[in-house]
Amino acid sequence: MKTGRNYKFWFCTGSQDLYGDECLQHVAEHSAIIVEALNKSGNLPFEVVLKPTLLTNEMIRRTFNEANADEDCAGVITWMHTFSPAKSWILGLQEFRKPLLHLHTQFNQEIPYDTIDMDFMNENQSAHGGREYGHIVSRMGIERKVIVGFWDDKAVQDKIASWMRTAVGVMESSHIRVMRIADNMRNVAVTEGDKVEAQIKFGWEVDAYPVNEIAEAVAQVSKGDIEALVEEYYDKYEILLEGRDPKEFREHVAVQAGIEIGFERFLEEKNYQAIVTHFGDLGALKQLPGLAIQRLMQKGYGFGAEGDWKTAAMVRLMKIMTANMPNAKGTSMLEDYTYNLVPGKEGILEAHMLEICPSIADGPISIKVQPLSMGDREDPARLVFTSKEGKGIATSLIDLGNRFRLIINEVNCKKVEKPMPKLPVATAFWTPEPNLQVGTEAWIYAGGAHHTAFSYDLTTEQMVDWANAMGIESVVIDKDTTIRNFRNELKWNSVYYR
After folding, report:
1. pTM (2 decimals)?
2. Which of 119, 300, 344, 407 is most buried, by the most CB atoms less than 10 A from its CB?
3. Edge-to-edge order in the sheet of strand 8-14
4. Are 42 and 84 in contact (CB under 8 A)?
């Protein structure tokens, strides 16, 4: 998936000249060894770039401003090798505008019991210097991630890798542009929101286009291009005619192929990375975009139904954060549809009219053509499948009027007990943590939407870190959630974020 950037992360070591040139030489050598090991570990999704040891106010300030200006720099990793006087960092930190990681580590894993002396103590003061640095960052109220542990441990490197993906999400947030085709579904509250405040907070541009302007782009797609894509569909997916005439079925599928090509060309031309549609305003489009939207989501575009631009942007964001992740299981928009309330089998059936991303599919993916009661158009083609099993997170970004809140629910995805042969849509089935009753109560108390941006591959910690970097409220529903504590947290947050 294209982001347009070859992101890297700068590694900046803090020290000072109190202990002489030999000590500084060792500091530089140790930093180089750490950076080389991180890059060779295979555990990090992005390259780490070593910068000269930072000793003075002027060096720190210049380096941070160079990081600001470098479009490929997605953040800075700071490490205090020795004691670095914190006031030297103030101006640089004040002017720094990108994600910041405080890696609180030291070069040696173990105390060298037999040889340790005061020269070693003076040179290896991370426990000391990291606290001095941490104090000033906290006093200045600057958001950052703190990771503690030995730099060569895989667990520490995995935490760095996780933060890197969040940092890229922070950087790419300001590049997300959402195209709204028509408006929000009438009288629906949760898909509304303050688009100006969203651009201030997240950097998102949310623009509206008349539906027939994009319908014209669809109409201009050549028959040859459409037929070539239809052939790709027929090669890749199972075709479920279910009694329909094969020629008529293919014509319905061809409509979605034209929509996919036309939409993608329009999005690329206008530089948008997410899109919303609404079944109530389809203009000259022959079908509600279904298969077409599913394919666009799999290519990395964000999507929200019924004009839900917040979900569209969050799906795009989460797809960016999981781009090129090994063994990724998928990210999609989903919607809470109906419950299973049988004791011991509780869960929520997730689906939508058509538009679920096939990246979350498990097993065969089929094309069906079925009537749709809404939209007053011909029968749309759609991809039908069931989702993978495993743990994931469902997120909902809501506008409370005076602030945004990100709700994160950890969920357990399962297979439904029985097939659903008459349901012609893609589905997922999950039980929210800590259970259906508490998880759902907490979601409703928090004001969560019926649309979610869902991912198997991102963690609660990553999304909380993203929310912190954006300066917005986040609340988590997980195995430790109780309704009493959760409601108290909402009350405390209302005071903090007012």
Report:
1. 0.95
2. 407
3. 47-50, 8-14, 73-80, 100-104, 145-148
4. no
